[in-house]
Specification:
about 90 residues; about 50% helix; mainly alpha; globular; 5 helices
């Protein structure tokens, strides 16, 4: 049985450390950050070749790509997989 009462000296129980995600390489990386790094690294043309979606091949922009990727899980997964293939310089 868990005891949620304060410590005998009246102090609250010690806080648990926030769980980290050492096995998730995308933890803390936003979709926008991924997209910007990929565009800087590969360019729109190469991205459109590797992930052939219209928002990369026809008048591409960060804004339109983010809008599409947020609504389309299969496309976002492909972008995440592409992102994980490369090492990026620290910002």
């Amino acid at each position: 049985m868990l005891n949620h009462d304060p410590q005998p000296n009246g102090d609250p129980p010690p806080a648990r450390p926030a769980p980290s995600h050492p096995k998730d390489p995308l933890h803390g990386v936003t979709l926008e950050t991924m997209l910007r790094r990929l565009v800087d690294y590969l360019g729109w043309e190469e991205m459109g070749y590797r992930v052939p979606i219209r928002c990369f091949t026809h008048d591409p922009s960060i804004t339109s790509s983010l809008k599409f990727l947020r609504k389309t899980p299969w496309a976002r997964k492909k972008v995440e997989e592409l992102y994980l293939r490369y090492d990026y310089p620290e910002e």
